Amino acid sequence: MNTILLQVLSVTKRYHNGTVMIDALKGVDLTIYKGEIVTLLGVNGAGKTTLSSIIATLHPATSGDIIKNGISIYKDVVKYRRTIGFCPQKPNIDMMLSLEENLFFAGLYFGLSQTIIKERTEYLLNRFGLTQYRYSKGSILSGGYKQRFLLARTLMHNPDLVILDEPTVGLDPHIRRDIWEVIKDLKKDGITVLLTTHYLDEAEKLSDRVCVLDKGVIKIIDTPEHLIQKHNQTNLEDVFVALIEESKAE
Ligand code: ADP
Predict the structure, then answer these.
(1) Which of 132, 126, 144, 143 is nearest to 98 (CA)?
(2) Residue 167 CA to ligand 1 centre (angstroms)
């Protein structure tokens, strides 16, 4: 049976840009189940980043609530943050520090003890094939290895929900596939993943369900297979193009 991990309930977000108000989310409801990979899709401006960054508590919702394991995340944001990992699109590794030092500070940030930091550092460097770079500065890593390291650092405090914002943007195709394997391994470990991507092949390969946002509302939530079948297409990209055409015609 599917167990609910997180529920987004009637979430809205209104930005105030000078005198202009932008309703980026207009009442979003989304249930995320334990152990699944859910991908947010939508054209630029649809509200994907706003939704994922509200779930990551980078900024608050204007209204609505988010429930994790039965409790509003806003009751204790610090406690909630210790259970989630957020991997930003732009690598924010401290380039002057070694990978080991970067992990050390990530561990301190999450209040881990020195013993746990040591254990997690060993585990993650080994798990992500980064042991040989442990004393190297972040600046020497290639784009693919930077992304691998960001994912490793995201797991430092052993979160059960990981939010990945465009994890493969700008990477070469073979490196993107390498990162896909890393993401699939997260799922194998029982970690729930909320992914944002512009790559439809990536969404099709990785997602248990895709959630299509359109002008601040969820238009569709379904499995890629079902969407492809329902829209009589051969891949998710063609489904997505068909949906955009529908949205323009509305
Ligand atoms: P997406 O990630 O799907 O491209 P966003 O969530 O970034 O969409 O943006 C949704 C809408 O909110 C857009 O109209 C965007 O211009 C607006 N928006 C996003 N961030 C801000 C902000 N910090 N201030 C004002 N408007 C914003």
Answers:
(1) 132
(2) 19
